[in-house]
Design goal:
The protein is an alpha+beta fold and about 400 residues long. The chain has 2 domains: about 150 residues, no CATH class; about 170 residues, Heat Shock Protein 90 (2-Layer Sandwich). The chain contains 9 helices and 7 strands. The strands form 2 sheets. It has a 5-stranded mixed beta sheet, with helices on one face. It has a two-stranded antiparallel ribbon with strand order 1-3. A hairpin with a 2-residue loop joins strand 6 and strand 7. Helix 2 runs antiparallel to helix 3. The longest helix has about 80 residues. It is rod-shaped. The chain starts with about 30 loop residues before the first helix and ends in a 16-residue tail after the last strand.
Amino acid sequence: MSTPRTIGAGSSAGVKAQRSSERSLWTHPVIFVAAFTSIGILFAAQEWLHLFHAGYHIKAAIVFESWGAQYLIWGIISWILWRLFRPFIQRANTVQILTIVFPVCLVTCFIQEMIWVIFFPNIPIDRDRMRYWESVLFNFKGDLVESMVIFWGAFFFFRGFGYYQQFREKETVAAQLQAQLANAQIAALRMQLNPHFLFNTMNSISSLMRSDIDAADSMLEQMSSLLRMTLERRDVQLISLHDEIEFIETYLAMQDQRYAGRVVRTLSVDPELHDALVPAMILQPLVENAFVHGVSKLDRGGELAIEVTSDGDRIWARVTNSGRGLAAARNCPSTGHGVGLANVKNRLHLHYGEDCSFSIVEIDPSHVQVSIAFPLQLSQDALETVTRFGV
């Protein structure tokens, strides 16, 4: 073991290079300098115990003050160098480290000794008191190895921490780009869905114009209300279930004009779910599909049931309709109405990833049920314009 610092010129310990922390809190000046000083206190405790067992009678205050001050000064110097030369520390190559950083290391070690000697001119205590510059040179030679270990330990800590920050920044940017991509995809799906809905509604109004002008006029007013709701939401992706049900009720009232007396419908919503967030216009394609592929094929006695419930931390929405069943629907030529259901599945996946479900089942030969499920999320806990998952 080398000579203890408070007895002779050398020192018995060096500082291990500090590992990069996962939180930027470690580069806060107070936290960083306090951590550096704490290391000095630990070394001071080690040296004082060594001196005590070796039979030296030295006040603990002298040992702790000298070591604590040394590492306090190093903490301040290291943090200042990091703040002033952070870009250079990050990009310095081997040649620059040898030709620039190494000389800076020697100068910094000398400056640290100059400051330290001002506060502790009588150390080492086993020698006669020296003049200032004589003491600086004496301590500089004796502590050079330890000082260089401290400097390079701080240098590589900051260099590693900088690499970690760059890695985290790249991850954040990648996540933001992924979210923006998902948002763009959802917006594209919404743009696809709105013309599809409008086209089908206009066809319904057109068919009513030949048989019931008053019903067609009423249906046109209701369609205007639905378009106003759609425009008011703009690019908002998640809305309250209450707003979604309001949209569905207006849509159902519009369909009542077309299928007057042919459909018995029920709408059941758990009152506790009115503030839950759901993807905008997520139920309308399901209801439209029930009309187009189910009850529209019946002359009378059509049934349509819409139910929204919760099961623990999940929302379940089920649309059940009477009609010809899945087998008959598959045997019919495609009319393009599959766009709505595919749209729903894609948007659910973009919002919730694998944490959602979509299914179509034939309850019996004349009843089909479409079910969707996704996480229950209350309006005060979410950002309405940001998706939760990317593709």
